[in-house]
Design goal:
Blueprint: H1 4-20, H2 28-35, H3 39-51, E1 56-58, E2 64-66, H4 76-84, H5 87-90, H6 108-124, H7 131-135
Antiparallel strand pairs: 1-2
Helix pairs in contact: 1-2, 1-3, 1-4, 2-3
Pfam families: Rrf2 (PF02082)
Organism: Niabella yanshanensis
InterPro entries: Tscrpt_reg_Rrf2, WH-like_DNA-bd_sf, WH_DNA-bd_sf
């Protein structure tokens, strides 16, 4: 459903939120190790998310990535839009360019409901809300 880049972005953002709950800043190496992702790839992804103010960063020996109260309220939909664009929320289920209400593809009407449900779930899901479940080990980011 998401591109690999978007999957890494979401996982990295949740990992950073978990670590920065106590004011910690986390470096690229720790993030990459924590979510089992390539370092160089995570660095590029976080650079883009930082440009959009979805995550904060500080350079230097005590630097790293972190969330404050505002950035922790970013939704998963914000991340998806930044990395993958709006296609998930508005695109055709079959990938057709001309799919619309007046010219629907064979799955248009059912897929529209699925798409709306996914968008609603991603809009409600805030980065900062996943930390409790991770700490309680009810959810995980890697095996």
């Amino acid at each position: 459903m998401f591109s690999k880049t978007c999957e890494y972005a979401i996982r990295a953002m949740i990992f950073i939120a978990q670590k920065s709950r106590d004011g910690e800043r986390v470096g690229i190496k720790d993030i990459a190790r924590g979510i089992e992702a390539p370092e160089y790839f995570i660095a590029k992804i976080l650079q883009e998310l930082s440009r959009k103010n979805l995550v904060l960063s500080v350079k230097g020996p005590n630097g790293g990535f972190y969330h404050d109260a505002e950035s922790a309220q970013s939704s998963l939909a914000d991340i998806v839009r930044t990395i993958d664009g709006d296609k998930l929320f508005h695109g055709c289920g079959l990938g057709l360019k001309e799919c619309s209400e007046s010219h629907p593809c064979p799955i248009h009407h059912e897929f529209k409901k699925v798409r709306a449900g996914i968008q609603c779930m991603l809009e409600k899901a805030r980065i900062g809300t996943f930390t409790r479940e991770l700490e309680s080990q009810l959810t995980f980011l890697k095996r």
